[in-house]
Each structure stands twice: as structure tokens, then as C-alpha cells.
Amino acid sequence: RWYITVPGLILAVALAVGSFIMIKPGYERTATQLLLPGEGLVPEGTTNPYLFLGGLSQAADILTRTVGAGETLGPIVEKYPGLQVEVKRDPLSSGPVILFTVTAKSDADAAAALDDVLETSVVTLDRLQTQQGVASRDRISISGLTTDVASTPQQRTRMTVAAGVGLGV
Prior knowledge:
Number of helices: 5
Strand content: 15-25%
Largest sheet: 5 strands, antiparallel
Shape: elongated
Structural class: alpha+beta
Radius of gyration: 23 Å
Order of helices and strands: HEHHEEHEEH
Oligomer: single chain
């Protein structure tokens, strides 16, 4: 029965390799932003705002929820077909750090989309504070911490499909 098994194995390998080549990887970039208290929120004479980050966790949660909402990200996702965006609190930090992750079909789209999402977070925070009538001295600001300068290719989908095709045949 080798005359059935060997051609079957060759066909399975060929289809698995073909599907791996045809499916393009996703390109992922991440960035983090830190919320900082306004001048009016820190005691007089204090020069280190990092000592007063404790009360900003709730603001980070609200900003994360608002920026991650479909109506906020909708225009960006429409601009870059196949874009996936994740906005969440950074699980590796106890402070008000927000982690942004974008996955796009190309490196250029991932870079541009990440820039758009970061700008949207700044605009959204400003809009939320304006709606509540927060005085300019008390306004929370955003400081960029990290931004990937190169995308990381994501191979998971390619590998899963190739393995599925190979095993299926």
C-alpha cells in the first residue's frame, strides 16, 4: 500500500507548504502610555509627579474602556482593512499604564495604525476632561513610555492553517 501512502504524504506536505506560503503573516506593534497627574493634583513644591500616580488607576480604566470602544476605534479599523486593535491596562505594571497592541496586514499599516491609536487616546482623554469641566491645572496628561519601531511578524495563523491542511490530507 506504499503506492497510496507515499503520494498521499507528498500531497499533504505540498498542500501544507503551499498554504503556508499563500497566507501572509500579521504584523504586530505595541506601545505604552502613562497617565500623569496635573499640577493642581500634586502638593506645592513637589517636582516628581511619579510619586502621585496612585489615584490615576480609575482614570486609566475609564480611558482604556473609552479608547477601546468600537465607536472610538471604528474609523481607524475602517482605514486599515484587517486591522486588530487591543487596548488594555498593562498587566506588568501596577501604575496607570495603558498597553496598545495593533496587528495589521503590513508593517507600514501597523506603524500608521499605532500612531493613529496613540493620537486617539490623547484626544479622547482631553475630550473626557473637557466634558467634565476639569480645570487646566487639574488635567491629567499622557506621556508616551514605549513604542515599537519595528513590527513583529505573527506566524500563528499561517502555522495553524498549514498544520490543519497537512493533517487533513
